[in-house]
Predict the structure.
Amino acid sequence: EINEEEFKKYMYRPEIPDPELVIRTSGEFRVSNFLLWEIAYSEFYVTNVYWPDFDEREYDLAIASYNKRDRRFGGVNVK
């Protein structure tokens, strides 16, 4: 039988939890087929800074942005 848990065993690193935050440098708004299954409910932070220039300040900005978010894990807020 194939289910989510069985499928997950064959992922790139099944022992590591799915990422909560994906930081994308260089201003690119794409995932490049990177960990597609694992990032389904991840939050994304995109910065125009290129990877060689990504420093502690940029990291702190990404974390601050993440901390302000209302994570819905695929759900929507109905008002």
Notes: The mean pLDDT is 90.
